[in-house]
Amino acid sequence: MILKEIQLSNFRNHTDTKVYFSSKVNIVSGNNGQGKTNLLEAISYSCLTKSMFTHRDTEVLQSGKSWFSVFATLHSDIEFTYKNQVRYNEEKKEKIFIINNIEIEPLSSVIGKFPMVFLSPELSIITTGGPAERRRFLDILLSQSSKTYLENIIDFRRIVKQRNTILTNPTLKEDRELIEPWNELLVERGSKIINHRTELLSQFKTHLIKSYSDIAGQNEIVNVEYKSSISENESHSISSIQEKLRGELKKERTNELYKGTTLVGPHRDDLLFTINNHPFRQFASQGQHKTLLIALKIAEYYFLKDTCRETPIVLLDDVFSELDNSRTNHLLDKLSELGQIFISTTLENITTVFGGLNLQTETIVVKDGAVFKEKDIVVQ
User: Whole-model pTM?
Assistant: First the structure.
């Protein structure tokens, strides 16, 4: 997948921005607060229908405006052209997504059609934060690679929300017959999600181990396991997972009634990262955490390329801080192997990061929400 051009209207600090891109490396440069990251955020809207930073479209809307739009032209690996447009109307509280003049519904059906990998410092919580952040990473990854997984996770969240409504209602929560159908729906959807996660994680793990080793060297060996409340990193059939979920629901019934929330299911699971067989969160340095985050995203690229049969677009927002020169150079070597890349960085960092590397790039300078295009250059 190649993003050929994008046009932003009333999008954050971009009132009317249009820019054409290189099919390989695009350096989006400028001082802080000028709109570099906003340009990457607009690319996310074009591929995923939404922002990587916020669930609220109103936060993206430029102050004083009643609408925003993002228009993009993309070419697929088989050279099919897509004209994508996202429009948001504040008065109607309405967002629509249009592909080649056809309005797409539901918006979730777009996910995975235009695979994208995004990395920014804010995502460091994947390796340093709680289980919810790692589950979110896993859900976004698998939702782009599988429509079935996306449908199951949407349904599962609805089921948990309904169960919690019953569990928090003093009148309803003691009625076993009322909650039993929701228990079965939780078991049915939850077992598919756990099975899907464990099966595909083994494929993803191969990419992760190699990506981390390529950046950090052979002395640091990382691994990842799926940590479920119903199993200990074992492979189970869907029927056996369902049996375990039913057993856990019975065991946790009293606790669920007391706490008023669903305590059983894949929404309580986690990913466990290790480095040289030690828990990553306790033993890894800050630089190793950054390396793991980058390796996760490179692994995501290869995983999506395999499963979606389409080359993902890669967005890298300020990724070179906290990396030593060796890891930075190894990372740049890895990036040269990928498809189309967008890298945001400050003006001061261009020479520091890209100096000495024979890498064909195109530089886009952003200042006060305006774009200034520079000629293709080779940074040496």
Answer: 0.87
